[in-house]
Specification:
Length: 342
Amino acid sequence: MMTPLPLAQRLAAFPRQRLGHSPTPIDALPRLGARLGIDLSIKRDDATGLGGGGNKVRKLEFLFADALAAGSNVVLTAGAVQSNHARLTAAAAASLGLDCELILTTPQTAMDPAYAYNGNRLLDETFGARVHVLPPGADSMPALEHRAAALRAVGALPYIIPIGGSNALGTLGYVSAVLEVLAQQSAHGTFDAVVVPSGSGGTQAGVALGAALTGQPWRVIGISVGRAASAQRARVTAIVAQCCALLKLPVLEALRIEVFDGARGPGYGLFDSDTRAAILDAARLEGQLLDPVYTGKAMAGLRMLAARGDIVAGTRVLFWHTGGMPALFGYPDLLTPSGGTA
């Protein structure tokens, strides 16, 4: 176990390009907590500021610092059409005077027409990104590498940012975020559990690793938004190991990665009635906007865990809001009783 100061010193060895507002607030959610029978607070990483806010800003601060140090003049990344990560990459590039190209994948499931042009997709081009939309079922990684090679051929210096910013370097953003919460706990008290959406895996990996390194008693629960629990657990575990190597620390063999996959619904980017109910309750009880891809599913998962007693009554829970509000405009069927796919 490390104290917060030595961990902060290790993190300070890595260049960081400030992009967002921090610390983000922690707010109480008394009405929603009362409904679930828990003491519920929310970490407002939807309020990071840049480009509409969201958790990817923390990762991009480390990744863009690396891109600038490498002398890159164009950044590339990939994601779904309604990718929050793609939007924030485009916003960060614009703020630093870099070009940005996005490789976006199209779902194989029929979606509302607004999915293809509204929400994050609208903002990508508003921020000046050059967008390449792939046909349904296409793999973004070969397209990303091919585009980077084409840019190098004409003299550009591209920097590829991984999907979700979830490599070891990007994950440092959430190891660092744990130190931010520790500084806030004096005002809010110690949390028993921290619930995070788990998609590309870096956010959960960073929170779990930061908590373990600083000896926090938190139960860090990742709510999978797409993969089965076993696959997601393996993904997060691998990122933790890579992050330990980057920090020159031994792998924490005893670190248990907890993933709940009961709220992933029909698949990534597809919502069901549980997600819809979680989004509407958060909005109507607390004025908090969640999204159908990440935070709505994470809240649905928290509701399920509380209802079945896996998170016991009275538990002090910190729900990590990772942003995503712009994606709501790509899902206008959310308010249709039959909206969603299940």
